[in-house]
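Hi C.,

You asked whether I'd gotten around to modeling the 293-residue construct. I have! Everything is below, sequence then structure, no commentary in between.
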Amino acid sequence: MGPRILVLGGSGFLGAHVARAALEQGFEVVAASRDPKLPPQVGAARTRAFDALADGSLERLLEDERPHAVIVCTALPSIADCERYPVLARTLNADLPARVARWTAAKGARAVLVSTDLVFGATPPRAGRFLEDDPPAPVSEYGRTKAGGEARFLEADPRAVVARLPLLFGDSFGRGTGATDALLDAVRRGERPSLFTDEWRTPLDVAEAGRALVRLADAGVHGIVHLPGKERLSRHELGLRVLAAAGHAPEEALALVRATTRAEAGLGSRPADVCLGTLRAHELAEDRWNAAG
């Protein structure tokens, strides 16, 4: 068994894939979350119940486990929830990462914070992609709290890594989460989901994101790293590809979803284009790296 990795938010859509990737790469894995039950596909990760809002719970967990590395997937990720509960958003998206980084800096452990492409959006990207040295310019409370969390995380531990992820798709182990399974489940229920034709992302498979985060936790990389997918796609285009992969013919797929715009949906807090690029992919020196240059 290799060094211990602690995955905060380890039972979530992304966290479960991080835990599985870490096990596959030979690490001892502790997956901590409010509901620590893991899908059987993840493997033999040890689980811990963890309430991020309980006083002292984070510090007790860290002292109990003494991990080699901490990967922070815990967040309040809903744009609507962050607008509705800004104090909770700051607590989970900014305060919690800073507390993790203070501990890892003091103990010499590695720390990786999962962040988001939605720290951008107020201005269009240069040359079609946002790069690591572009200043954050969010348009939502979610983006603002994540950008604040990034800054506090790296201030507390300059050796740490912030990994900005795009929209994630892929297998949720039957739980109906993520861009793929949420769409397929809605279609199976007879719904006709609305997908934006004017919101542009660089989607990434969640399994590849999990593998990349584990590599970052064990690499000599620090600062901000983008983990984009290869293609620039609208939410509508991604949805059609998901349906095609599930066996639906092109005409059928078009009929199963509703093409719409952010304005038609009344969602002014969603940016038009947060496509990520990267200048730092070479630092991982991995042929499987799924990033756009």
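If it helps when you're writing up: The radius of gyration is 18 Å.

Thanks,
B.
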